[in-house]
Amino acid sequence: MKTISIGPLKMIGIITLLLILLILLYLTRASDYRVVEIKDCQSGTRLSVYCEFSNPEDIVILPDERHLLISEFGAIVPLHSKHKPGSLSLFDTALERKKSLTISPGKNIWGEDSCHRDDLLFSPHGIDLKKRFDDRYQLAVINHMPRETIEMFEVLMDGDSWRLQWMGCLNTPRLGYFNDVALTREGSLFASHMYDRGTPFWRLALVSLIKTPTGFVYQWKKHTGFLKLQNSEGSFPNGVSISDDENSLFVNYVFNRRTAKLDIESSSVIGEHFSSGTPDNSFVDAEFLWVAAQDNSAADLMVFCGDPASQCSAPFTIYKLRQDDLSEVESFFFENTQMGLATVGVPLKNKLWLGTFRGDRIASFELDHKSIPDPLNLQLLTN
User: Fold this and answer.
1) What pLDDT, on a 0 to 100 scale, did the predictor assign at position 80?
2) Angle, alpha carbons 76-194-213 (nearest 5°)
3) How far is CA 180 from CA 7, 109, 151, 191, 379, in A?
4) N or C: which end of the chain has fewer CB within 10 A?
5) What is the pLDDT of residue 24?
């Protein structure tokens, strides 16, 4: 096997670049807020929390408007050293408890003929649910294990609960590294390509500062496969949602702190919203769009939330936007409360349900509650 040697001058250059990046990341951290350690599963005056999850990153509402289907996120590289298994689970909002979810194998009907699955090992990420033209409910799941795919399931009633049947999958393009997915009623979809698979951490850290494009949105149809959606480039594309009339696509760009509205037919940008933090997932709700944004930098995560076993209360904001022009209706800010780093907010029966990519809980709050302080009576970690 041929070995690659790195000269001393080149090694010094690499080390110097890494040190500069670390210094820049530290200097740009949002040091004007406090983070406290969460040590229990107690609800507060603003947030009610429900534990026994593992990184519940994305949420969809099931047709009975009682159950939530939750993607329990594994990991993405290079933000983690390797991919990890995750799971899909149910939460009963009436009983306020987590339920197991049965997943059964099926035939590859909604996917590509070339995509096969030998087991039911998953590492789910973004998810979307859509009622198809044939009145069946289709779930699409971004998946990182054992390889990069988008998995398709039919969502079926199971007594007073729900189950999933596998209905096929899609192999991602060669360098494709997907984050979120938005389905159409005919079964086609849009998926956000975050950045090229294999991108090293130092390059991602650099881009978080200079905010150059790292990815774009793919459109997939059965007869065309994956095609790049024009004018969808941005710095770390994340959440994607499609309007109910399927004329508009909403895309969140993490490093740009931007939500864009694209006209699907013309691929033109027809609206923008800029968050105070980094926007993650979005959720379409009639004429509104709910966007979850984390009010921290990458350095903040390393400084304040370095222990992966701990619960981090880093601040976040939930935005309610008008779909037509992405103007802001209202926002809900949280800090030092019972959950941090929210990735999604979905409205159901006058409550907003929240997920996170880092933690053991989901949360909810009453939508008639305004943003009033609710500090935790916990030991202060840092200021």
Assistant:
1) 77
2) 135
3) 41, 21, 12, 6, 36
4) N
5) 52
